[in-house]
Amino acid sequence: MSRLHKVFVYGTLKRGEPNHNWFEKDSGYYKLISEAKTVEKYPLIIGTKYNIPFLLHSPGNGTNVRGEVYEVDDKVFANLDTLEDHPNFYIREEKDVLLLNSNEKIKTWIYFIKDFKDDLLNKTTYESYSNAGSHGLKYVERYLRGDTYDHKLEILKTVKS
Predict the structure, then answer these.
(1) Coil, strand or helix: which one is 39?
(2) Which residues pair with residue 67 across a beta bridge?
(3) In angstroms, rounded to a whole number, what is the distance separating the alpha carbons of residues 54 and 125?
(4) What letter would DSSP give residue 40?
(5) Could you give the CA distance from residue 43 to residue 121 in angstroms, rounded to a whole number?
(6) DSSP bridge partners of 140
């Protein structure tokens, strides 16, 4: 029997964003619970030439990031791990978020970049991400990317193969 997991998404997985369709792969179960924000502050940046939103694991820096909480089954959870390349690139951790529809504090999984290059902390941080945002930085979907550029080299201190 499949277990259910709560996941906080802050970037391209949100409704109306380019990777939201990953929730629907393989006919898994997912349900939007609420819009939410992180209890701790974190830097949400947009980086690399692909304009990818990253949540840097640097508690206390940045803002209380706004996003959405979903309940997902094991199948959808595994697909999200694949998209986020957990644990080689993003690393997910359970953290508290505040549900905006009820002011309830709950634990959810959040995908972070942990082994990031220090200079990324100097980038502009955002409270909320939208691909159509005023920042003007359009996300480049995977199928449009060439295979000669490894964006992980710009982000991680140590790249795992």
Answers:
(1) coil
(2) 36
(3) 10
(4) S
(5) 7
(6) none
Q: Which of 68, 71, 84, 93 is catalytic?
A: 84
What is the model's pTM? 0.94
Tokens 């295979």, located at residue: 147
What is the β-pairing status of strands 4-9 and 105-113? parallel
Return the C-alpha torsion angle 56, 62, 68, 69, nearest 10. 70
Structure confidence by residue, pLDDT tens digits, 82-138: 999 999 999 999 999 999 999 999 999 999 999 999 999 999 999 999 999 999 999
Give Cα separations from 52 to 20, 96, 103, 151, 159 (angstroms): 14, 23, 29, 9, 17
Is the distance from CB of 157 to CB of 115 less than 8 angstroms? yes
Instruction: Give yes or no: 93 in active site.
Output: no
Radius of gyration of the chain (CA): 15
- 15/116 Cα distance (integer angstroms): 27
